Amino acid sequence: MQRLPVSTQTLYADLVDRAWAGSYQELVQAGGSPYKQSAHGRDYWYVKMPMVNGERRPDRYLGPDGPNVRTRLEQHKALNLIRKERMSMVRALRSSRIPGPDPISGKIMSALSEAGAFRLRAVVVGSAAFQTYGAMLGVRLSAAAGQTSDLDIAQFHSISLAVEDSVPDSFIETLQEVDSRFRAIPSPIDGRRTLRYAIRTGSQEEFAVDLLSPHRGAERPKTTNLPALKGDAQLLRYLDFLIFGEINAVSLHGAGIPINVPAPERYAVHKLIVSRMRSSTPSSLTKARKDIVQAQALFEVLLEDRPDDVEFVWNEALERGPKWRKNLQAAAQSLSIDIREKLLALSGAASGPEGPGGS
Question: How many CB atoms lie within 10 A of CB 152?
Fold first, then answer.
């Protein structure tokens, strides 16, 4: 385990605070430029949005010229300075070999952030979340373990209903602002529902975005609608454990994208669980090995720096029932001996009957 300089960890924490502080104006986050236009004897302010993939996005209306709009434009100048400072922080972290997302993942997360998805408690899961943990925990994690060809976004269905707010455009429209080739792939079970969102060339899938939501209890349809994100999500078991109590993070793209990610100890335990759920196909076995690599890397630092957090979450998982215990104990055999022994030593208090969250 290679520790990062304390200054690097502090810089990342400062960037998280700055990226999440307040609600920055959309025009600043999107890099737009304000301009004034006259019509019918009055002046009106608009924001010229930047081009995406060679296509100009629609200009955004600010309002008629007056003190309020001028104040917002003065704030725009100050926020642009803040944005430049954040970009410098991102460059400094990237120059320290802290991993960031691939360009398309970064653009998608930026578009979702601009739309308000993470304010509505959407959570980035999978390898894009893993990329944030190194700087967060103060260690250098394997860049290869964080590489991905897709992006997973999750949200509790109950939260999607409860927030009584939503992103302005549908999920597929937001993705198509990033790349117009995105298509909604219908569910084979119910063609009216979307299974996933992907860019395809012929039969080859170049990139995919999966919208996910927890599946608990009796069998139900494999997809559900998330009103807050205006899109259909796949229902997955064990996901409720992963995204409960999400935390603020930042993805190192552009000026730093404020996102939510799972708590790292939940991510590590969840990776052990899902490694046992993979099928025996070559691609699934590769993913299972990656699950174990990520779990091992996180447990190495968490068991040393945050043992109480690991103990709490580990026992919570074990108390969910015999299936959870069986899968966790089996998956732990793939970890290094020292990590495995430390985890299994935490298991003594969790050998009772199935808890209320058993799946």
Answer: 21
Phi/psi of residue 23, each to 5°?
-110, 105
Residue 311, both tokens: 């103990």
Q: Decide: 62 and 26 in contact? Cβ < 8 Å.
A: no
Report yes or no: 194 and 133 within 8 Å, Cβ to Cβ.
Answer: no
Query: Cα–Cα–Cα angle for 80, 112, 158, nearest 5°?
Result: 130
pTM here is 0.81
Distance CA 288, CA 294 (A): 10
Three-state helix/strand/coil letters over the chain: CCECCHHHHHHHHHHHHHHHCCCCCHHHHCCCEEEEEEECCEEEEEEECCEECCEECCCEEEEECCHHHHHHHHHHHHHHHHHHHHHHHHHHHHHCCCCCCCHHHHHHHHHHHHHCCCCCCCEEECHHHHHHHHHHHCECCCCHHHCCCEEEEECCHHHHHHCCCCCCCCHHHHHHHHCCCCEEEECCCCCCCEEEEEEEECCEEEEEEEEEEECCCCCCCCEEEECCCCEEEEEECCHHHHHCCCEEEEECCCCCEEEEECCHHHHHHHHHHHHCCCCCCHHHHHHHHHHHHHHHHHHHHHHHHCHHHHHHHHHHHHCCCHHHHHHHHHHHCCCCHHHHHHHHHHHHHCCCCCCCCCC
Q: Which two tokens stand for residue 39?
A: 């019509």
| Distance separating alpha carbons of residues 246 and 58, to the nearest angstrom | 33
Please name the amino acid found at residue 261: V
pLDDT band with cut points at 50, 70 and 90 for residue 221: low
pLDDT digit string, tens, across residues 243-293: 999 999 999 999 999 999 999 999 999 999 999 988 778 888 888 899 999
